[in-house]
Amino acid sequence: MANIRVSLWGMLAILTALWIAADPAIFESSTFFDVRAAMVQYTGIIAIACMSVAMILALRPRWPEPWFGGLDKMYRLHKWLGITALVVAVVHWLWAKGPKWAVGWGWLERPQRGPRPVPDTVIEQVFSTLRGAAEGTGEWAFYAVVVLIALALIKALPYRQFFKTHRLLAVAYLVLVFHAVVLTTFSTWASPLGLVMGLLMAAGTVAAVIVLLRRVAVGRQAQGRIAALQHYPGVKALEVRIRVPQGWPGHKPGQFAFVTSDSSEGHHPYTIASAWNDADREITFIVKELGDHTRRLREKLHVDQTVKVEGPYGCFTFDDTQPHQIWVGGGIGITPFIARMKELAATADRPSQTIDLFHPTADYDAEALAKLSVDAAAAGVRLHVLVDDVDGRLSGERIRQNVPHWRDASIWFCGPAGLGHHLRTDFAAHGLPARRFHQELFAMR
């Protein structure tokens, strides 16, 4: 999480410094309308820069994953960038429109302006003729962005609708790039700020075109067929085994993939619940019935059905050198730990770490828990199952009572965000370094 904040605020600070360096005369502005002109430029630059980086992250690039700690963290930054762009764009719109309204209401007096200077270059002349079109299309694109980002933030909107509407942001973004290129003060393009903004918008434009052509991560997609299905009614979960004859590079336990079983529904992210074996080339997912799509899967999926698998992604891969590990898999968050236990069971030379797995769950399924117990025994993992109605809630104190050596351990958490926040805060208060608390942020919108 720290790297997400550093990246967001660092980007905003750098852009602000470059903007000031490009036009330090802003601090000498003597009238309201001089300040207004500067703020329209500044807010426009920040908004389109945030949208550009968000658009680049929409391609799911792999190279930033180690820095952020996984694609799940990159998607969190993508969300924050979208919110920042929305807020700053609204401020930009108010700076552009507000003074005009105030003049119309008689609250402000329009400044006297002479004729516009004749542009010195052909490019500047072209930009001057396009100002009206850039202002008009940019305003309508702004309205579209407000609606589309708001829809993306509404969790009640079904995923299939989010999947379809969110792609339209790429169209609005391309219009806003035209708006920004034409209306940015022409002298800015000769400054370091202009170079940075040009690179960001160029990369964002390429990303938007890739999104619209539906070519995101096509090189990381593999065709597979469903080999087996098993339903666990007690925990309302469906286990899906997919055979991938070719194209899948393998994965580490704790990673996840996007799976498409219905092109109209789009891809959905699922944590992989199996270790990779190049001999059988199968991937297992355990899907919890949490929404409209996942509740319908049991009726829609069938053995031998063709599906598309994209990945693997994520850095929740249990890599550390602590002598002890504490795993917490809340509800369906147990899946990465199942994958890791299967890998440990199949490994002759296991790491010397001692491992305690806590599985708090509100649901109970005897068959599912029996399989979990077998996996834990085979991997040499101490299993602690807590059914909420019987055993009560999991707390930091309860973990510390069961794991006396917790001070020398790392904690790997996957489950409800509220429980994760509580445990992170609790262990930090007891002196556990933040870098040793690993959490999957498995919310892609």
Structural notes for this entry:
This protein has 445 residues and is an alpha/beta fold. It has three domains: 2-212, Up-down Bundle (Four Helix Bundle (Hemerythrin (Met), subunit A)), CATH 1.20.120; 219-313, Beta Barrel (Elongation Factor Tu (Ef-tu), domain 3); 324-439, Nucleotide-binding domain of ferredoxin-NADP reductase (FNR) module (Rossmann fold), CATH 3.40.50. Helix content is 49%, strand content 16%. The chain is built from 15 helices and eleven strands. The strands form two sheets. The protein has a six-stranded antiparallel sheet, with helices on one face. The longest helix has 34 residues, at 71-104. The radius of gyration is 26 Å and the shape is elongated. It starts with a helix and ends in a 6-residue tail after the last strand. The model has no long low-confidence stretch (mean pLDDT 91).
Put the structure in a nutshell:
The chain has helices at residues 2-22, 32-57, 65-68, 71-104, 122-129, 131-153, 159-166, 168-183, 192-212, 292-300, 335-345, 366-379, 388-391, 396-402, 417-429, and strands at 221-232, 237-243, 256-260, 268-271, 282-288, 306-313, 324-329, 354-361, 382-387, 409-414, 437-439.
Task: Write the SSE topology.
Blueprint: H1 2-22, H2 32-57, H3 65-68, H4 71-104, H5 122-129, H6 131-153, H7 159-166, H8 168-183, H9 192-212, E1 221-232, E2 237-243, E3 256-260, E4 268-271, E5 282-288, H10 292-300, E6 306-313, E7 324-329, H11 335-345, E8 354-361, H12 366-379, E9 382-387, H13 388-391, H14 396-402, E10 409-414, H15 417-429, E11 437-439
Parallel strand pairs: 7-8, 7-10, 8-9, 10-11
Antiparallel strand pairs: 1-2, 1-6, 2-5, 3-4, 3-6
